Amino acid sequence: MTDRIVVAGGAGYIGSHVCVELLAVGKEVLVVDDFSNSSPEALARVEEIAGRKIALLEADLADAAQAEKINAAVAAFRPDGAVHLAGLKAVGESVAEPERYYRVNINAALALVRALDAAGARRIVFSSSATVYGEANPNPVREDAATAPANPYGRTKLFIEEILKDLARADPRWRACNLRYFNPVGAHPSGRIGEDPEGVPNNLFPFIAQTAVGRREKLRIFGKDYPTRDGTGVRDYIHVCDLARGHLAALDYLAGHEDAGAIDVNLGTGVGYSVLEAVEAFARASGRDIPYEFAPRRPGDVAEIYADPSRAARLFGWKAQKTLADMCADHWRWQRDNPDGYRR
Ligand code: NAD
Ligand code: WQD
Protein backbone atom coordinates (compact mmCIF):
# COMPACT_ATOMS: atom_id res chain seq x y z
CA MET A 1 0.00 0.00 0.00
CA THR A 2 1.40 3.36 -1.02
CA ASP A 3 1.42 5.55 2.02
CA ARG A 4 4.17 8.21 1.74
CA ILE A 5 3.56 10.58 -1.15
CA VAL A 6 5.51 13.55 -2.48
CA VAL A 7 3.11 16.16 -3.87
CA ALA A 8 5.00 18.52 -6.17
CA GLY A 9 2.93 21.68 -6.61
CA GLY A 10 0.82 20.67 -3.59
CA ALA A 11 0.03 24.24 -2.55
CA GLY A 12 -1.78 25.00 -5.82
CA TYR A 13 -5.46 24.80 -6.68
CA ILE A 14 -5.61 21.12 -7.56
CA GLY A 15 -2.65 20.09 -5.38
CA SER A 16 -4.24 21.45 -2.19
CA HIS A 17 -7.34 19.33 -2.83
CA VAL A 18 -5.17 16.28 -3.59
CA CYS A 19 -3.40 16.82 -0.24
CA VAL A 20 -6.74 16.91 1.61
CA GLU A 21 -7.76 13.59 0.07
CA LEU A 22 -4.37 11.96 0.77
CA LEU A 23 -4.39 13.08 4.41
CA ALA A 24 -8.00 11.94 4.82
CA VAL A 25 -7.04 8.35 4.04
CA GLY A 26 -4.01 8.42 6.32
CA LYS A 27 -1.19 8.99 3.84
CA GLU A 28 1.90 10.98 4.80
CA VAL A 29 2.51 13.95 2.52
CA LEU A 30 5.61 15.95 1.57
CA VAL A 31 4.73 19.03 -0.47
CA VAL A 32 7.44 20.48 -2.70
CA ASP A 33 6.40 23.93 -3.90
CA ASP A 34 8.07 27.26 -4.60
CA PHE A 35 4.81 29.21 -4.06
CA SER A 36 5.32 30.89 -7.43
CA ASN A 37 1.57 30.59 -8.04
CA SER A 38 0.23 29.78 -4.59
CA SER A 39 0.32 30.71 -0.96
CA PRO A 40 1.51 28.91 2.21
CA GLU A 41 -1.92 29.83 3.58
CA ALA A 42 -3.44 27.13 1.34
CA LEU A 43 -1.37 24.47 3.10
CA ALA A 44 -2.30 25.84 6.53
CA ARG A 45 -5.94 25.45 5.55
CA VAL A 46 -5.37 21.94 4.20
CA GLU A 47 -3.94 20.99 7.60
CA GLU A 48 -6.93 22.61 9.30
CA ILE A 49 -9.43 20.66 7.14
CA ALA A 50 -7.58 17.37 7.56
CA GLY A 51 -6.58 17.85 11.20
CA ARG A 52 -3.13 16.56 10.25
CA LYS A 53 0.28 18.00 9.39
CA ILE A 54 2.04 18.21 6.04
CA ALA A 55 5.81 18.15 5.56
CA LEU A 56 6.96 21.04 3.34
CA LEU A 57 10.01 21.70 1.21
CA GLU A 58 9.96 25.17 -0.31
CA ALA A 59 11.98 24.74 -3.49
CA ASP A 60 11.94 25.47 -7.21
CA LEU A 61 12.05 22.09 -8.92
CA ALA A 62 13.19 23.67 -12.18
CA ASP A 63 16.30 25.23 -10.61
CA ALA A 64 19.31 22.92 -10.99
CA ALA A 65 21.06 24.72 -8.13
CA GLN A 66 18.38 23.38 -5.76
CA ALA A 67 18.61 19.76 -6.92
CA GLU A 68 20.84 18.60 -4.09
CA LYS A 69 18.52 20.02 -1.45
CA ILE A 70 15.48 18.50 -3.19
CA ASN A 71 17.06 15.07 -3.60
CA ALA A 72 18.10 15.02 0.05
CA ALA A 73 14.64 16.03 1.32
CA VAL A 74 12.84 13.54 -0.92
CA ALA A 75 15.19 10.70 0.07
CA ALA A 76 14.84 11.55 3.77
CA PHE A 77 11.04 11.40 3.41
CA ARG A 78 11.31 7.78 2.10
CA PRO A 79 8.43 8.16 -0.38
CA ASP A 80 6.48 5.38 -2.06
CA GLY A 81 5.49 7.62 -4.96
CA ALA A 82 4.61 11.09 -6.11
CA VAL A 83 1.93 13.27 -7.63
CA HIS A 84 3.44 15.83 -9.98
CA LEU A 85 1.39 19.02 -10.35
CA ALA A 86 4.17 21.64 -10.31
CA GLY A 87 4.42 23.77 -13.41
CA LEU A 88 3.26 26.78 -15.36
CA LYS A 89 -0.23 26.54 -16.82
CA ALA A 90 -1.30 29.72 -18.63
CA VAL A 91 -1.94 28.92 -22.29
CA GLY A 92 -1.56 32.49 -23.61
CA GLU A 93 1.61 33.09 -21.60
CA SER A 94 3.09 29.88 -23.05
CA VAL A 95 2.58 31.21 -26.59
CA ALA A 96 4.39 34.45 -25.67
CA GLU A 97 7.17 32.80 -23.59
CA PRO A 98 7.71 29.30 -24.94
CA GLU A 99 11.31 29.02 -23.70
CA ARG A 100 10.19 29.62 -20.09
CA TYR A 101 7.38 27.07 -20.39
CA TYR A 102 9.62 24.34 -21.78
CA ARG A 103 12.40 25.14 -19.30
CA VAL A 104 10.23 25.21 -16.18
CA ASN A 105 7.77 22.43 -16.98
CA ILE A 106 10.22 19.93 -18.47
CA ASN A 107 13.03 20.62 -15.97
CA ALA A 108 10.67 20.40 -13.00
CA ALA A 109 9.40 17.01 -14.20
CA LEU A 110 12.93 15.70 -14.80
CA ALA A 111 14.12 16.94 -11.41
CA LEU A 112 11.28 15.14 -9.66
CA VAL A 113 11.99 11.98 -11.67
CA ARG A 114 15.66 12.09 -10.61
CA ALA A 115 14.78 12.64 -6.94
CA LEU A 116 12.29 9.73 -7.02
CA ASP A 117 14.78 7.50 -8.80
CA ALA A 118 17.48 8.25 -6.23
CA ALA A 119 14.97 7.53 -3.45
CA GLY A 120 13.93 4.25 -5.12
CA ALA A 121 10.31 5.41 -5.45
CA ARG A 122 9.57 4.99 -9.15
CA ARG A 123 5.85 5.71 -9.14
CA ILE A 124 4.41 8.94 -10.43
CA VAL A 125 0.98 10.36 -11.18
CA PHE A 126 1.24 13.31 -13.54
CA SER A 127 -1.13 16.27 -14.07
CA SER A 128 -1.68 16.12 -17.79
CA SER A 129 -4.53 17.78 -19.62
CA ALA A 130 -7.22 17.26 -22.22
CA THR A 131 -5.33 19.99 -24.01
CA VAL A 132 -3.00 17.27 -25.41
CA TYR A 133 -5.80 16.12 -27.74
CA GLY A 134 -6.07 17.38 -31.27
CA GLU A 135 -8.96 19.49 -32.43
CA ALA A 136 -10.61 16.99 -34.70
CA ASN A 137 -11.39 14.12 -32.36
CA PRO A 138 -14.90 12.73 -32.07
CA ASN A 139 -16.64 13.17 -28.70
CA PRO A 140 -16.53 11.61 -26.21
CA VAL A 141 -12.73 11.69 -26.44
CA ARG A 142 -10.95 8.43 -25.65
CA GLU A 143 -7.33 8.15 -24.55
CA ASP A 144 -6.30 6.68 -27.90
CA ALA A 145 -7.54 9.78 -29.78
CA ALA A 146 -4.94 11.72 -31.77
CA THR A 147 -2.72 14.05 -29.75
CA ALA A 148 -1.94 17.45 -31.26
CA PRO A 149 -1.71 20.19 -28.62
CA ALA A 150 -2.27 23.66 -30.05
CA ASN A 151 0.21 25.62 -27.91
CA PRO A 152 3.54 25.31 -26.05
CA TYR A 153 1.82 24.69 -22.70
CA GLY A 154 -0.03 21.70 -24.14
CA ARG A 155 3.16 20.45 -25.79
CA THR A 156 5.00 20.48 -22.44
CA LYS A 157 2.22 18.19 -21.13
CA LEU A 158 2.53 15.83 -24.09
CA PHE A 159 6.35 15.76 -23.90
CA ILE A 160 6.30 14.96 -20.18
CA GLU A 161 3.80 12.16 -20.84
CA GLU A 162 6.25 10.78 -23.43
CA ILE A 163 9.22 11.12 -21.06
CA LEU A 164 7.37 9.04 -18.45
CA LYS A 165 6.54 6.41 -21.10
CA ASP A 166 10.19 6.21 -22.14
CA LEU A 167 11.24 5.77 -18.51
CA ALA A 168 8.81 2.89 -18.07
CA ARG A 169 10.04 1.31 -21.31
CA ALA A 170 13.66 1.57 -20.22
CA ASP A 171 13.13 0.40 -16.65
CA PRO A 172 10.03 -1.61 -15.73
CA ARG A 173 10.39 -0.51 -12.13
CA TRP A 174 8.90 2.82 -13.26
CA ARG A 175 5.11 3.05 -13.14
CA ALA A 176 3.40 6.21 -14.32
CA CYS A 177 -0.10 7.51 -14.84
CA ASN A 178 -0.75 10.53 -17.03
CA LEU A 179 -4.04 11.93 -15.81
CA ARG A 180 -5.65 13.96 -18.55
CA TYR A 181 -7.86 16.42 -16.69
CA PHE A 182 -10.80 17.96 -18.49
CA ASN A 183 -11.99 21.26 -16.92
CA PRO A 184 -11.42 21.27 -13.14
CA VAL A 185 -13.74 23.66 -11.27
CA GLY A 186 -15.35 24.03 -7.85
CA ALA A 187 -13.72 23.99 -4.44
CA HIS A 188 -13.64 22.03 -1.22
CA PRO A 189 -17.16 22.05 0.33
CA SER A 190 -15.73 23.67 3.48
CA GLY A 191 -15.14 26.87 1.47
CA ARG A 192 -11.62 27.05 2.97
CA ILE A 193 -9.55 26.18 -0.12
CA GLY A 194 -10.15 26.90 -3.79
CA GLU A 195 -8.80 28.43 -6.96
CA ASP A 196 -7.06 31.79 -6.47
CA PRO A 197 -5.90 33.09 -9.84
CA GLU A 198 -3.52 36.03 -10.04
CA GLY A 199 -4.95 38.99 -12.00
CA VAL A 200 -7.76 38.65 -14.52
CA PRO A 201 -8.87 35.01 -14.71
CA ASN A 202 -8.40 33.22 -18.04
CA ASN A 203 -10.81 30.43 -17.19
CA LEU A 204 -14.58 30.51 -17.19
CA PHE A 205 -15.46 29.54 -13.61
CA PRO A 206 -13.13 31.93 -11.79
CA PHE A 207 -14.35 34.70 -14.07
CA ILE A 208 -18.02 33.89 -13.41
CA ALA A 209 -17.34 33.66 -9.67
CA GLN A 210 -15.55 37.03 -9.56
CA THR A 211 -18.42 38.55 -11.55
CA ALA A 212 -20.97 37.11 -9.13
CA VAL A 213 -19.09 38.53 -6.14
CA GLY A 214 -18.81 41.96 -7.81
CA ARG A 215 -15.07 41.99 -8.55
CA ARG A 216 -15.73 42.03 -12.34
CA GLU A 217 -18.42 43.98 -14.12
CA LYS A 218 -19.47 41.36 -16.62
CA LEU A 219 -18.49 38.10 -18.22
CA ARG A 220 -17.57 38.05 -21.89
CA ILE A 221 -18.82 34.90 -23.57
CA PHE A 222 -16.41 33.97 -26.33
CA GLY A 223 -18.49 32.95 -29.35
CA LYS A 224 -22.21 32.50 -29.81
CA ASP A 225 -22.30 30.72 -33.16
CA TYR A 226 -20.53 27.44 -32.46
CA PRO A 227 -22.30 24.34 -33.81
CA THR A 228 -23.49 23.44 -30.29
CA ARG A 229 -26.98 23.31 -28.77
CA ASP A 230 -27.02 27.02 -27.83
CA GLY A 231 -24.09 28.30 -29.89
CA THR A 232 -21.64 28.61 -26.95
CA GLY A 233 -18.65 26.34 -26.27
CA VAL A 234 -19.21 23.01 -24.53
CA ARG A 235 -16.76 21.59 -21.94
CA ASP A 236 -16.53 18.71 -19.50
CA TYR A 237 -16.38 20.48 -16.12
CA ILE A 238 -15.26 18.27 -13.27
CA HIS A 239 -15.42 19.01 -9.54
CA VAL A 240 -11.92 19.41 -8.12
CA CYS A 241 -12.71 17.01 -5.25
CA ASP A 242 -13.72 14.28 -7.72
CA LEU A 243 -10.51 15.05 -9.60
CA ALA A 244 -8.47 14.82 -6.38
CA ARG A 245 -9.99 11.42 -5.57
CA GLY A 246 -8.91 10.33 -9.04
CA HIS A 247 -5.27 10.84 -7.99
CA LEU A 248 -5.71 8.51 -5.02
CA ALA A 249 -7.30 5.94 -7.28
CA ALA A 250 -4.38 6.24 -9.72
CA LEU A 251 -1.80 5.89 -6.93
CA ASP A 252 -3.57 2.80 -5.60
CA TYR A 253 -3.72 1.35 -9.10
CA LEU A 254 0.02 1.85 -9.61
CA ALA A 255 0.76 0.40 -6.16
CA GLY A 256 -1.24 -2.69 -6.99
CA HIS A 257 0.09 -3.25 -10.53
CA GLU A 258 3.81 -3.97 -10.74
CA ASP A 259 3.59 -4.18 -14.52
CA ALA A 260 1.44 -1.04 -14.97
CA GLY A 261 4.00 0.68 -17.21
CA ALA A 262 2.95 4.19 -18.18
CA ILE A 263 -0.74 4.74 -18.87
CA ASP A 264 -2.91 7.65 -20.01
CA VAL A 265 -6.22 8.12 -18.22
CA ASN A 266 -8.93 10.77 -18.74
CA LEU A 267 -10.47 12.38 -15.69
CA GLY A 268 -13.79 13.90 -16.71
CA THR A 269 -17.48 13.34 -16.13
CA GLY A 270 -18.35 12.37 -19.69
CA VAL A 271 -20.94 15.15 -19.86
CA GLY A 272 -20.52 18.51 -21.56
CA TYR A 273 -22.15 21.78 -20.55
CA SER A 274 -22.28 24.99 -22.56
CA VAL A 275 -21.05 28.36 -21.30
CA LEU A 276 -24.66 29.56 -21.01
CA GLU A 277 -25.63 26.46 -19.03
CA ALA A 278 -22.68 27.03 -16.68
CA VAL A 279 -23.64 30.70 -16.21
CA GLU A 280 -27.24 29.77 -15.48
CA ALA A 281 -26.24 27.06 -12.98
CA PHE A 282 -23.87 29.46 -11.21
CA ALA A 283 -26.53 32.18 -11.00
CA ARG A 284 -28.92 29.66 -9.46
CA ALA A 285 -26.34 28.37 -6.94
CA SER A 286 -25.22 31.86 -5.89
CA GLY A 287 -28.51 33.72 -6.09
CA ARG A 288 -26.54 36.45 -7.87
CA ASP A 289 -26.92 37.97 -11.31
CA ILE A 290 -24.11 37.14 -13.73
CA PRO A 291 -24.20 39.96 -16.30
CA TYR A 292 -22.67 38.90 -19.60
CA GLU A 293 -22.15 40.02 -23.16
CA PHE A 294 -21.18 38.08 -26.25
CA ALA A 295 -17.70 38.59 -27.67
CA PRO A 296 -15.83 37.11 -30.63
CA ARG A 297 -14.57 33.53 -30.45
CA ARG A 298 -11.32 33.13 -28.51
CA PRO A 299 -8.49 31.96 -30.79
CA GLY A 300 -7.59 28.32 -30.22
CA ASP A 301 -10.95 27.34 -28.67
CA VAL A 302 -12.76 24.24 -29.90
CA ALA A 303 -16.55 24.14 -30.10
CA GLU A 304 -17.07 21.11 -27.94
CA ILE A 305 -14.99 18.58 -26.01
CA TYR A 306 -15.93 16.04 -23.36
CA ALA A 307 -14.30 12.90 -22.04
CA ASP A 308 -14.90 9.24 -22.35
CA PRO A 309 -14.11 8.47 -18.70
CA SER A 310 -14.60 4.70 -19.00
CA ARG A 311 -10.91 3.77 -18.69
CA ALA A 312 -10.72 5.35 -15.22
CA ALA A 313 -13.87 3.46 -14.26
CA ARG A 314 -12.51 0.17 -15.58
CA LEU A 315 -8.96 0.42 -14.21
CA PHE A 316 -9.48 2.38 -10.99
CA GLY A 317 -13.16 1.93 -10.18
CA TRP A 318 -13.28 5.75 -10.20
CA LYS A 319 -16.19 7.87 -11.35
CA ALA A 320 -16.99 11.55 -10.92
CA GLN A 321 -19.89 11.91 -8.50
CA LYS A 322 -20.59 15.62 -8.17
CA THR A 323 -23.04 17.52 -10.35
CA LEU A 324 -22.74 20.90 -12.08
CA ALA A 325 -24.91 22.31 -9.25
CA ASP A 326 -22.37 20.98 -6.69
CA MET A 327 -19.49 22.53 -8.65
CA CYS A 328 -21.23 25.92 -8.69
CA ALA A 329 -22.34 25.81 -5.04
CA ASP A 330 -18.85 24.90 -3.82
CA HIS A 331 -17.06 27.32 -6.12
CA TRP A 332 -19.42 30.04 -4.95
CA ARG A 333 -18.95 29.28 -1.22
CA TRP A 334 -15.15 29.60 -1.66
CA GLN A 335 -15.51 32.87 -3.64
CA ARG A 336 -18.07 34.38 -1.29
CA ASP A 337 -16.11 33.55 1.88
CA ASN A 338 -12.75 34.57 0.34
CA PRO A 339 -13.55 37.36 -2.12
CA ASP A 340 -9.84 38.18 -2.47
CA GLY A 341 -8.65 34.59 -2.34
CA TYR A 342 -5.84 33.84 0.12
CA ARG A 343 -4.57 37.41 0.01
CA ARG A 344 -6.58 38.67 2.98
P1 NAD B 1 -1.54 25.96 -9.77
O1 NAD B 1 -0.70 26.97 -10.45
O2 NAD B 1 -2.56 26.41 -8.79
O3 NAD B 1 -0.61 24.88 -9.04
C1 NAD B 1 0.70 24.60 -9.46
C2 NAD B 1 1.60 24.65 -8.22
O4 NAD B 1 2.94 24.36 -8.61
C3 NAD B 1 1.61 26.03 -7.55
O5 NAD B 1 1.49 25.86 -6.15
C4 NAD B 1 2.98 26.59 -7.92
O6 NAD B 1 3.48 27.47 -6.93
C5 NAD B 1 3.80 25.31 -8.04
N1 NAD B 1 4.96 25.43 -8.92
C6 NAD B 1 5.00 25.95 -10.18
N2 NAD B 1 6.24 25.87 -10.68
C7 NAD B 1 7.00 25.28 -9.72
C8 NAD B 1 8.37 24.92 -9.64
N3 NAD B 1 9.23 25.16 -10.64
N4 NAD B 1 8.83 24.31 -8.52
C9 NAD B 1 7.98 24.07 -7.48
N5 NAD B 1 6.68 24.39 -7.51
C10 NAD B 1 6.20 24.98 -8.61
O7 NAD B 1 -2.23 25.09 -10.92
P2 NAD B 1 -3.39 23.99 -10.82
O8 NAD B 1 -4.58 24.53 -11.50
O9 NAD B 1 -3.50 23.47 -9.46
O10 NAD B 1 -2.79 22.89 -11.78
C11 NAD B 1 -1.94 21.87 -11.30
C12 NAD B 1 -1.39 21.09 -12.47
O11 NAD B 1 -2.47 20.55 -13.22
C13 NAD B 1 -0.58 21.95 -13.43
O12 NAD B 1 0.53 21.19 -13.86
C14 NAD B 1 -1.53 22.19 -14.57
O13 NAD B 1 -0.84 22.36 -15.78
C15 NAD B 1 -2.34 20.92 -14.58
N6 NAD B 1 -3.67 21.12 -15.16
C16 NAD B 1 -4.48 22.11 -14.67
C17 NAD B 1 -5.73 22.32 -15.23
C18 NAD B 1 -6.63 23.43 -14.73
O14 NAD B 1 -7.55 23.79 -15.46
N7 NAD B 1 -6.42 23.98 -13.57
C19 NAD B 1 -6.18 21.48 -16.28
C20 NAD B 1 -5.34 20.47 -16.73
C21 NAD B 1 -4.08 20.30 -16.16
C1 WQD C 1 -14.21 27.20 -21.03
C2 WQD C 1 -15.26 27.77 -21.98
C3 WQD C 1 -14.42 29.48 -23.42
C4 WQD C 1 -13.59 32.42 -20.28
C5 WQD C 1 -8.41 25.74 -20.45
C6 WQD C 1 -7.06 25.40 -21.00
C7 WQD C 1 -6.82 23.94 -20.86
C8 WQD C 1 -7.03 23.46 -19.43
C9 WQD C 1 -8.29 23.95 -18.83
C10 WQD C 1 -4.91 23.26 -18.33
C11 WQD C 1 -14.75 28.00 -23.40
C12 WQD C 1 -15.45 30.04 -22.49
C13 WQD C 1 -13.97 31.29 -20.97
C14 WQD C 1 -14.34 33.62 -20.45
C15 WQD C 1 -15.79 32.43 -21.97
N1 WQD C 1 -5.99 23.91 -18.55
N2 WQD C 1 -15.05 31.29 -21.80
N3 WQD C 1 -15.42 33.57 -21.29
O1 WQD C 1 -10.34 26.75 -22.68
O2 WQD C 1 -11.66 24.65 -22.11
O3 WQD C 1 -9.42 25.01 -21.15
O4 WQD C 1 -8.44 25.36 -19.06
O5 WQD C 1 -4.51 22.26 -18.83
O6 WQD C 1 -5.52 23.73 -21.29
O7 WQD C 1 -7.03 25.76 -22.37
O8 WQD C 1 -11.30 26.39 -20.34
O9 WQD C 1 -12.36 27.80 -18.66
O10 WQD C 1 -10.84 28.88 -20.35
O11 WQD C 1 -13.04 28.00 -21.09
O12 WQD C 1 -16.75 32.45 -22.71
O13 WQD C 1 -14.03 34.67 -19.88
O14 WQD C 1 -15.65 29.06 -21.50
O15 WQD C 1 -14.51 30.07 -24.68
O16 WQD C 1 -15.82 27.72 -24.27
P1 WQD C 1 -10.72 25.72 -21.70
P2 WQD C 1 -11.83 27.83 -20.04
TrEMBL record:
Its EC number is 5.1.3.2. GO terms for biological process: galactose metabolic process. Residues 7-330 form the NAD(P)-binding domain. SUPFAM superfamilies: NAD(P)-binding Rossmann-fold domains. Its cofactor is NAD(+). Pfam families: GDP_Man_Dehyd. Gene3D superfamilies: NAD(P)-binding Rossmann-like Domain, UDP-galactose 4-epimerase, domain 1. It catalyses: UDP-alpha-D-glucose = UDP-alpha-D-galactose. GO terms for molecular function: UDP-glucose 4-epimerase activity. One of its GO terms (cellular component) is cytosol. The keyword Isomerase applies. Pathway: Carbohydrate metabolism; galactose metabolism. Keywords: Carbohydrate metabolism, Isomerase, NAD. The keyword Cytoplasm does not apply. PANTHER family: UDP-GLUCOSE 4-EPIMERASE. Belongs to the NAD(P)-dependent epimerase/dehydratase family. Homodimer. NCBIfam families: galE, PRK10675.1. This is UDP-glucose 4-epimerase. It comes from Amphiplicatus metriothermophilus.
